[in-house]
Amino acid sequence: MGREGHGGGVLTSVFSFFGREETEKKPRISTFYWNQEKRIVQRLEEEVSTCVEIWHSYVHPRVRSIFSFAELDVILFQLARNVNKDEDPITGGSEDCVLWHGDITVNNKMEVQAALCIVHKDQTKTVGFTNRLLSFIFADDDSYALLQNLPVTKDALQMACGNQLCVNLAHISI
């Protein structure tokens, strides 16, 4: 289930990012426009590209040993497309929630959690928690060390704001 050839042990054991492999019998839950009260205002493709370019400058070097540039681009493009165009989960600050309008998973407690689907080179798909992946990609060394000491679970990281559909990096509870 991990990505052993690409350092999957790190992601799987530390962050439990890779929640499950997707199969024909168990598709991911698509939730585009899941929130009826606040629909997403999507970025134009040019705006998506600009966001991704900016976010690349914040990516921690450890990520480059796990994901290729192309794989990272796919993840960052998904992120830019699935949050409101006026919100930035990476550089936007700590004030407001940044709501996820992409895929979700539901845990054993029936709580919805923001999820990302990653398609690997061999065309297998893995669904994982958005906030765990973002913390791996963008956390500084000190924050990363704190996250490594958290108990390994099969859930998303807890958000300090209490909203598991928030993907604001500053709201991840350490």
UniProtKB/TrEMBL annotation:
Top-rank taxon, per record: Eukaryota
Entry protein name: Uncharacterized protein
Source organism: Cladocopium goreaui
Organism taxonomic ancestry: Eukaryota, Sar, Alveolata, Dinophyceae, Suessiales
